[in-house]
């Protein structure tokens, strides 16, 4: 076991189309809200009545931005803007460091996206999608690299997988035992015999175990549509980054 050779990328080709889907084809517009400029004479009242924190203001000098707490409307800068086709996963990283962006489309500035928009369905779908790809990646890796993977599971976890396998087999489902492992089981297999070093370079076993345990908690929260996720968006970004690096 200790001599298992890492074969990084052995199953990535199967997952790349899905990774590309999440990386490229879910745009920031999927979570953004439409916006429009308010007159310079009434933008404060409009903000108060709509509970807005940021607005566009049409002034005699041109289009301006105003954020709560500003002394007056200010010119828009390039750092305030995102393009409509920007992938959501890229906007996600930017929103960790800046509360809001205005979005340019062909018709001009038409939308706004804020940190609170990250909790919308498209972002949740991207996150659970990555976790699903990660789970499939681990299954493929177990098949190709850990022929004696059963030795890395407790008798209880192995019995649970075997019971599920028998149930599905009785239903005439085409399945193997590895497909009946839970995400926690897959993570545990790579925790043993220093296999985690293939997935999380420079980390300790404790760091790896904590990461995969938290990914499992996040997956469960998303699967049950919990209104409040158990991690901050910064922590979720770190989990996504770990999975992406491990798979790529």
TrEMBL record:
Superkingdom to which the source organism belongs: Bacteria
Name listed for the protein in its UniProt record: Uncharacterized protein
